[in-house]
Amino acid sequence: MIPRLELRNICKSYPGVVANDDISLSIMPGEIHAVLGENGAGKSTLMKIIYGAAQADSGEIYCDGRLIAAHDPASSRALGIEMVYQHFALFESVTVVENIALSLPGRFDLDALAAQITDLSQRYGMPIDPRRRVHDLSVGERQRVEIVRCLLRSPKLLILDEPTSVLTPQAVVKLFETLRQLAAEGCSIVYISHKLDEVQELCDSATVLRNGRVTGTAKPKQTTSLELARMMVGSQLPEMHVSPAMPGETPVLEVRGLTAAPRDRYGVALEGVSFAVHGGEIVGLAGISGNGQAELVALLSGERTHADPDAIRIGGKPSAHLGAGQRRRLGMAFVPEERLGRGAVPPHALWQNAVLTGHRTGIVRNGLVDRGKAAAFAKGVIDRFKVKANGPQASAQSLSGGNLQKFIVGREIALAPKLFLVSQPTWGVDVGAAAFIRQTLVDLSRAGAAVLVVSEELDELFEICDRLLVICQGKVSPPLIRRQTNREEVGLLMTNRASGTKGKDLALQD
Amino acid sequence: MDLFVAIFAGTVIAATPLIFAALGELVVEKSGVLNLGVEGMMLMGAAFAFWAVIAGLPMPVAILAGGLAGAAASLLFGVLALTFLTNQYAAGLALAIFGSGVSAFLGRNFGSAPIDALKRIQVPVLSDIPVIGPMVFRFDPMVYFAIACFLVITWFLYRTKAGLILRTVGESPETAHAIGFPVIRIRYLAVLFGGLMAGLGGAYLSVAYTPLWVENMTAGKGWIALALVVFATWRPLRVLLGAWLFGGMTILQLQGQALGIAVPSELLSALPYLATIAVLVIISQNRQMLAQHFPASLAKPFRPAS
Amino acid sequence: MMRVAAPVIAVVLTLAVGSALFAALGYDPLATLHAFFVAPLSSVNGLSEWLLKASPLILIACGLAVGFRANVWNIGAEGQLIAGAIAACGVGLFYPNPESPMLLALMVLAGALAGMAWAAIPAFLRARMNTNEILVTLMLTYVATLLLSWLVHGPWRDPAGFNYPQTALLPAAAMFEPFDYAYRLNPSIFLTVVAVFLMWLFADRSFMGYKMSVSGAAPLAARYAGFRESSAVWIGLLAGGAAAGIAGMAEVAGPLGQLSPQISPGYGFAAIIVAFLGRLNAFGIVLGGLLMSLLFLGGEAIQMNLGLPSALTRIFQGILLFFLLATDFFIFYRLRRLPEHA
User: Domain A5-233 carries which CATH code?
Assistant: First the structure.
């Protein structure tokens, strides 16, 4: 039998990084094939090459036995290759049907297309309303739009890039049913993931990548998690040391009945958010992205202020009306999820980026910046957090995502905060650095600081947090003790259907 | 009554150059590009059209020459902003300065004599209807053409696939590129179209509205057109209404001067500029309205990732 | 290194296009370039005029660059210059004691305050009312021009001036005394020297300047760090307004000696290009200002000597800015392409 897709010796490098090094794999019709690997292993690059969104430096791609010469997304689609991106390629300001019409050839007939969308989405058990604007849709619904868009073209090969990272555990079940139905109809599926359990449940075969190279192939259903994990991260699995929490008596951060309007028309309103974080503990905020995290974080950090000072107290002091600078004076430090452009100024050198929040540590005197001190501060952070950079003169944008994250985390921790807010601490960071950052957070809290971690990675939260909060549609759940809860309970709270209904009904919904 | 008819007709004519320039800029901005050089492109259009008339070319050719001059000027901006990814504010300013220089250079030998203006159409029968006739059926063809442009642009933006693509390129060029649209080419076309329209607006000023050559004769109309696009919150119908509002302002101000109102003429002349500031302030208060049709990628350089 | 290279390449390319243009117009390119760029500087008077014209350009560009660094787009310096000139001239004409030794200082103050007041309007509208400062500063330039026109045609017209639209001449105590009465260069140039130093100190060394550069390069990072956007807007616009106002004062108390409808040959607009030529850096601005001043002088020289239109100056300005922006691209994007990560 001829493979649907075959890659031979694909190589691709970017300046300073070899993203794909001699990768070969083959996928049969109707096969669900996993590409497994940690963040930064080269999965996304490989998928872009298959889809034609990036060109390999060398190597060959065959589709149904025919060599594909230079190609682009349009020619891939002509061959029946479709891709569902991790960050969806949807336009917020236009409707579902308009979005889909954009990528279809032929006549521009929105009414006929809308009917077709309704029909197809029902058949695969993921109903969507074609006339709604995308910005009104939940993340799960947007993913449906993406998948329906691909299905409308009757693909022979469907690529999904980390499709479950935005879904609740219940919605994942639903997605897998759809994918199995598709595979049964003969469509091949490339499933990119770093989650072992999902791959074991869904996929027929797997190719494992590490540092851009193939480190193994496997039949996931017949392979143990440990073996797969070894292939993914190499022999040294990082170990965490989480000692028991010793929370202080009075909260360092206290939020009481915080209600706020959405930040823009795509945002979410916060309703009566209340919780507290004590010194000596790590509290995690779980939730699917786009449920009010951005609003809550901006209000906590002081990037947005609130009219009622008492809605947020820091160290007992009413603070909701204070700006970011004033809150930092109260001992707050903050690592935002966007590194370039928010946590750091891209064209500025690291010493200048040290001044950004480190200016209170004696770097500024008489209104002038002491460049020597700023450089020393930056050097200290680089050394202590093993940031790979050409010293304090290197620009922020010259660092890799993981190294810049280490620099920002290091800079904020060097301020010896009493309250530490951190959003998505390990996004796009390699395994070693992620473990190091997590350990740093644990150590910081055990030294007495109050730490609030906002993350979409449940595994991460379960690993380091003492208590968990769940945010859904702008409301925050009561705290859960980590040792007394489980992923299912949190998953239900993430869709706000924790009480009253049965799990089976849930699975059919979002 | 006669005064009212005169003011109405004057308003429609005074608004015409603004309609051209602002509709063109609307399309440019809808694609996510901010070209501040409208003033320069209008001046280029005005100078080249006037030149063509003096050189004895037929009027339609002269007006087209003005449009093409604006388009050619916009190409300079396009190369800088789209290929060289420069700061769009700076590139637009450079174009504004350059266009004013080139037009003044060309215009040095134009003299100060007026030319035969673009002829008005007298629609048979209809133009003789009292009141309605002079208000609707006695304009020059460019006035009707401007309104036709409005209709076509509205249809294009909201009823065609190409218009949808243009809008989505303006919202997120990254996504549009990922889907496979030629973002840069689309933006070039939009910029050229904007230049053509600004050139037509300038041509209308020099060969139909005034019709004589004065250095820097646009007197800020290009900048007012930019303000109109903001004022219109990026919607074509509001551009049209806004242009009429400003046309009306200009005419009232001229009427006021003609009637010898006891206010210095300079103060009356300042009214359109002050009014522009006023409407900008008013519209800026409604952030929601501004955001609703705002092209989210406006003025952000885009480079397709390889 | 590369930061210096871009303006130099841009100048060379502009000269090349200029030569081609002259050749196309039927003039000998070398002779014309000589007449444009060299002849004006080959006399003491030429040098004096060179510095005299460079001074307001550099002064204004320094003020504007403070705002540009923070992405505050004040393009109405021409209007702020006019406002400053009007206020300074008003003080000079109507101060009760026309021989007061304090008069010049008061005029500098009046010019600065008037320029700042004119710039405070867009600052207030942007900071508090969310209104685009580009369009407002520009509209106010037209308004300032009309205001000046009204004053010199109306209330401030010199009764003894044969009905010319101009004010009376300023008293001697309200004028900068030239270094040498044979030439027009006067001590107001020291105001520019001070401005350059202050600009360097502010932009390169001060914490406030640092905060403004963060606002310009990454507004979200400024908000993250707790730097207020509104202070960047205020400082950016007021710095430009003050500089332009003082430049207007120096014009009226220097070479002009009175107000007339045309008091600036476009210094306010040209200073925008100077600021970019100088890479928003104090010392770069000095070089940029000297070059731009030469363009003005050359434009006048070829108009007088060769009968070529002075509009060429504006064409050169535009071309120079085009090339500068284009060369920036080659230098910044080709050599330091952002690393991409998979």
Answer: 3.40.50.300
